Input
Amino acid sequence: MKIAYILNTYPQPSHSFIRRELHALERQGAEITRLAMRAADVPLVDALDCAEAEKTHYVLRAGVLALFGAFLRVLITRPGATLAAVRQAWRMGAVSETGRLRHLIYLAEAAYVARHCAAEQIVHVHAHFGTNAAAVAMLAHMMGGPHYSFTVHGPEEFDAPRALSLGQKIAHSAFTVAISQFGRSQLCRWVDFAHWERIKVVHCGIEPARFTNPAPMPEAGLSLVAIGRFVEQKGQMVLIPALSQLVPRHPDLHLTLIGDGPMRADLESAVQRAGLGDAVTFTGWLDEAGVRAALAGSHALIMPSFAEGLPMVVMEAMAAARPVIATYITGTPELVQDGTTGWLVPAGDADKLASAVESLARLSPATRAKMGAAARARVLERHDVDHEAAKLAAHIREAAGHASDCAGTN
Output
């Protein structure tokens, strides 16, 4: 089965879950062409990401003439379908924050993708995120390309479903994937009930083999790890007042902030103003081995996010047998069980966040280890990447079979 993955930017340090899914599908026999509009604009520090970049075909590198030429050839060979796609792109651009010109660019990209898929005999296209990658997949399908599906992660798609024409993308798709039951419920809001059945839940997955024999928790100190882009929605700023309460009572408390982003300078300044320089370490982005080592040296992951899909770092921490302190948002409560595998607190509440850390501090080493073991068991049961990829592959095969049946009756 030949599949194309369509992505806006690939690979990226924060999108290792896509790479894992790709590899799991390939282990199950799928042949996958990676089509990204552009390369990452940040350095790739993980060797696996670098290897993925070598395998990826970058559409915009083909140049304006190639994209425009692809559109003209599709227009000549399939004029009716192409004009329908033009009208669709025009309507989508009218409601989008990016505007009509950008959607006409998506149209040219889609024509190029449709022709590339035909040349490669690709039977299905899958996109990640309900943004421009899904738009390209949909428009390519309308111009005669393969049927498509796409995975919605959130929270961006849930913030602007109308501007993204999310309902239309779902309605035209063979199926649409949500990564949590909460995510599925949000997608159901934007399409007619008749389309609900095509919205499937396929979790992002971890590779259990990478988390064998979790390291025991450190015996001394109180070590926390937070992982993610330094942007407003991740809520790292709430950690500063929480730590200001905690450090005087727990001088051995230490927080490691893994990641980078536009708010890094603000976070560093806030740490210094609060006098927490000795209690906080900024590492920048780490490769997977570095993240696993940081988790191994911690007692818990702390995730103060305001908005998420279902964070991979939560899954990785639980697989490493570490409890999680997270906010009670979106799909997180489907994985983190308050009092059993970690703690759930209201988003933006520094006092409750500090209280959860106090609860962790009061636990005996044996109880912490028991909570970590429960976290590990839960994530391995629900988020094995090979099991989840098998679900996705089954949906793709069903869609491909349905498309073949329809073609046979025409």
Residues 27 and 254 are 40 Å apart (CA to CA). The chain has a mean pLDDT of 95. The longest strand covers residues 2-9.
